[in-house]
Design brief:
Length: about 280
Amino acid sequence: MSIPDHAGPLAVAFLGLILGMRHATDTDHVIAVTTIVSTEGRMSAATRIGIAWGLGHSLTVFLVGGAIILFKLTIPARLGMTMEFAVAVVLVLLGFSTLARSSSAFRRLLGLRKKDDDLLAHMHSHEHDGAKHLHPHAHVRGSEHLHANHLDPVEKRTQRFASGSHERAFGVGLIHGLAGSAAIALLVLSAIPSPVLGLAYLAIFGVGTIIGMAIITSAIGLPMTLTAARLGGLNRALLIGAGLLSLGFGLFLAYQIGIVDGLFRSGSIANWTPT
């Protein structure tokens, strides 16, 4: 689907909105937000994550794509592939973080948790008559008495990482937008002769992307919300599945870009096409 030559402003606006919404459905985009949304248990939070991702994506597309349109910039092949490779790295990191948070077996595999570490021992500091001493005790993991201050350092870090879902979504959107800005700008540059109209198209394309991703994350968040409170086992399985999907697709993308497409090979890269 492309922008027709000599399209009027209203046609360009409508097409930009539709293509922006469709762009949100790209495989790497959906996998990334699925992994982030999987850490949330509320529909409203899932929708906000989609909006945050869309804002980050639209910002870099508008800035980088706008510079390409206005100044007729050319993105070197190796730089373009490096930006796309960054998306693969982000997917791998998202997968690792989700698996570390949701799977004790994965944490043990990485050496982050001992096999028989079902009791969490820790100490509190107390003061009596001006003298401080430590009071040791233990909790069973999953106990209702176990609160945030009782978590081990790894679990604290993964919970803090999860609590910043909106910031993560915005940052991931920035990287996705950076990787896709060249292709979007070249499409506009080839079909819309007016730079002003081209910038307007990018802005409307961004609005469409935000709307599309908000819809997608809301749909993804529905099963997470339904299973979070009542079906703990299924919810954990969904979390692990999202983490494995992100990790696997990220590794595949990294191999495709780095080895098959030749990012890590010496010499020029002649056959790179912005995607």
